[in-house]
Amino acid sequence: MIIKTTDLQNVCRKALSAIDTSIASSITEVVELRSIGNSLTVNITNNEYYVSSIIETTSNEELLAVVNAKIFLGLISKITTEEIELSTTQDTLVVKGNGTYKLPFIFENDSLVKVNPINIQEVTNEFNLSSETLKSITKFNSKEFLKSGLRKSTTKLYYIDEEGAITFTSGACVNKFTLPEKISFVVTEKIVKLFSLFDSDEVNFRFGYNMIHDAVQAVIELSNATTKLVAIIGDNDFLLKSVPTVAIRRRANEVYPHSVVVERNALLDALDRISLFSQVDVYVAYTHLEFTNEGLTIYDTKKTNHEQIGYANSDNSLEEWAYSCLVDSNDLKITLEACTAEYVTLNFGNKQAINVVYKNVINIMPECAIN
After folding, report:
1. pLDDT at 151 over 90
2. Does the fold of domain 254-366 match that of domain 2-112?
3. What pLDDT sits at residue 54?
4. CATH assignment, 2-112
5. Could you tell me the residue ranges of all domains in the chain?
6. Residue 25 has pLDDT above 50, yes or no
7. With helix as H, strand as E and coil as C, how does the chain read?
8. In whole angstroms, what is the distance from residue 27 CA to residue 21 CA?
9. Fewer Cβ atoms within 10 A, N terminus or C terminus of the chain?
């Protein structure tokens, strides 16, 4: 079977990002390649999620193989020839591209491993959503996990409901959007990485439950004309209780004593330069922010070096005021790098946190204290 490299890579590279490639991983993901007429179906699973993508081909050669997903997806992602040839022997998938590569089949009890799809037994919600919503979760909420702070199991979850998505570590990211039905569920980083498989304008979403050995498991499904993702959440009700959504949204929507608008690039560039002089305490570098009615001054940890940038709004120029705080330089930098807006709004003044606001996203960044 001959297939265009870019067509196969489009699926493989996106799926590869979600696979645990660590040596210590006990989870083995497999990929099944199955030809149906003039199309190749690529199915990937680890029994917790199931991805199925259909790729059109120019041939109708029969092909069936089940191989290690990490090796296959990684190999296809690195091939630079225009076309890839796939063929099989009795127990091997042969891939021809820049060279010839042999991937052994995965057997169980002398038979080729059977890749079973995951289905939803009882569907409770179904509606269409925009792929832009999925992209915004991946782009904005995922950045929260790059920030400083201890990572517990609950801070590795994406909480999603009809009002938007929330991720949190020491701070939080509140991404506001609207879903057409009342619903709430959580998903893991691995599943959110697979959201990138969907490029179409609309994606069909289904939510429901399966009964597995007397245990109720929540399941989500995303699909379009060529791709389907089904993922088992587990005990959704228990996981929902572990996310402090009410407290996070209350802080995100709080009215702060002060609010200024600054140019995003100006603040990020100044932070980049001043961070070179900031003191590192274990793993954290701190930056002082000093707000006055004249502008925002960015200092290093010892307040030896500084830069000042002006405000894009003039609401605060009518009175004299000043407010100083200490923030994690890396947290602020990651927040600004994720932003795609020209300007950001900074809400502050309660001695607890700074809210960085742009478009429909609110990043809650806690103020720091050095002992």
Report:
1. no
2. yes
3. 94
4. 3.10.150.10
5. 2-112, 123-237, 254-366
6. no
7. CEEEHHHHHHHHHHHHCCCCCCCCCCCCCEEEEEEECCEEEEEEECCCEEEEEEEECCCCCCCEEEEEHHHHHHHHHHCCCCEEEEEECCCEEEEECCCEEEEECCEECCEECCCCCCCCCEEEEEEEEEHHHHHHHHHHHHHHHHCCCCCCHHHHEEEEECCEEEEECCCEEEEECCCCCCCEEEEEHHHHHHHHHCCCCEEEEEEEEEEECCEEEEEEEEECCCEEEEEEEECHHHHHHCCCHHHHHHHHCCCCCEEEEEEHHHHHHHHHHHHCCCCEECCEEEEEEEEECCEEEEECCCCCCEEEECCCCCCCCCCCCEEEEEEEHHHHHHHHHHCCCCEEEEEECCCCEEEEEECCEEEEEECCCCC
8. 10
9. C
- Packing angle of the helix pair 5-16, 69-78 (nearest 10 deg): 130
For the cut 80, the answer to whether the pLDDT of residue 26 exceeds it is no
Q: What is the mean pLDDT of the chain?
A: 90
- Tell me the C-alpha distance between 162 and 176, whole Å: 9
Which structure tokens are listed for 280? 């590192």
Is the pLDDT reported for residue 154 higher than 70? no
Instruction: List Cβ neighbours of 364 (8 Å cut-off, separation of 6 or more).
Output: 171, 172, 173, 174, 248, 251, 252, 353, 354, 355
Residue type, 256: Y
How many C-beta atoms lie closer than 10 Å to residue 189's C-beta? 15
Any idea which fold 254-366 has?
DNA Polymerase III; Chain A, domain 2 (3.10.150)
pLDDT given for residue 213 in this prediction:
80
Q: Predicted confidence band at 347 (pLDDT cuts at 50, 70, 90)? A: very high
**pLDDT tens for each residue of 109-142:** 889 999 999 999 999 999 999 999 999 999 999 9
Nearest alpha-carbon partner for 243 in 141, 337, 133, 130:
141
Nearest to 327 by CA among 370, 265, 266: 370
